[in-house]
């Protein structure tokens, strides 16, 4: 099979499309014939090995897994002996453990769900990491009907899902994005849009019950001024390309301590992808209440270009790599 691989940490220029063996299949594993895969900041982090803390899990001097990518959508090709609820031919989506930028990938059965009816493979591949992150961010922020929610980075991968999910819960959403993405963010359900190139989130003095910060580039005091006294600030990734040791993760790690100072709650969000969250999203995706925003697609051979676009910052929605057509 063909796969995007690398032998060491480094820039996208070091990625190669090679012929490699199919990954081995464990008894609880599913082999997926990949149709589409998405890229996200995690791909960049594991490609470069930065922040350095990630190497504790991925390999200190060189990556333990040559492949890249977690988001996957495709067709079940083979199942392990202990898998009883999926069979060859089933269309699935979820996250894999061997690298989804490949013709075949292996995923644990509990990290896959049946692909929502009506979604293309490209749309389905955009969902697992970003939509689950958005879902869990809103849950951490205790967002409900009538709440006022500020989504920073509303035009990005997590942000486009956060706007739609908050709106579906009955919240009143304000999206923060560039002017070029304003109409998109409004179309997703935001009642108000702040163009961050023209004004700060605190201009006008409005306060929100929840702030979902997917950008990670505003100081905490600024975020505190945008939230009500008993509101919640959810810190979602961000700043992944800055900082040698922890990148943008130091704020998430410090969130419990930060909550002790001031009246607003501060929580760090790290998504836990799995079938339960995917199945919670499926009816929203099938009904059209939530629609994946695919900004741009690339063929597998151009996966390095897809990651470079991601690294430049501010992509619209999700960048998707098309691995195999119908």
UniProtKB/TrEMBL annotation:
The lineage of its organism: Bacteria, Bacillati, Actinomycetota, Actinomycetes, Micromonosporales. One of its GO terms (molecular function) is zinc ion binding. Signal peptide: none annotated. It comes from the Bacteria. Coiled coil: none annotated. Keywords: Oxidoreductase. Pfam families: ADH_N, ADH_zinc_N_2. It comes from Actinoplanes teichomyceticus. SUPFAM superfamilies: GroES-like, NAD(P)-binding Rossmann-fold domains. Residues 10-321 form the Enoyl reductase (ER) domain. The keyword Magnesium does not apply. This is NADPH:quinone reductase-like Zn-dependent oxidoreductase.
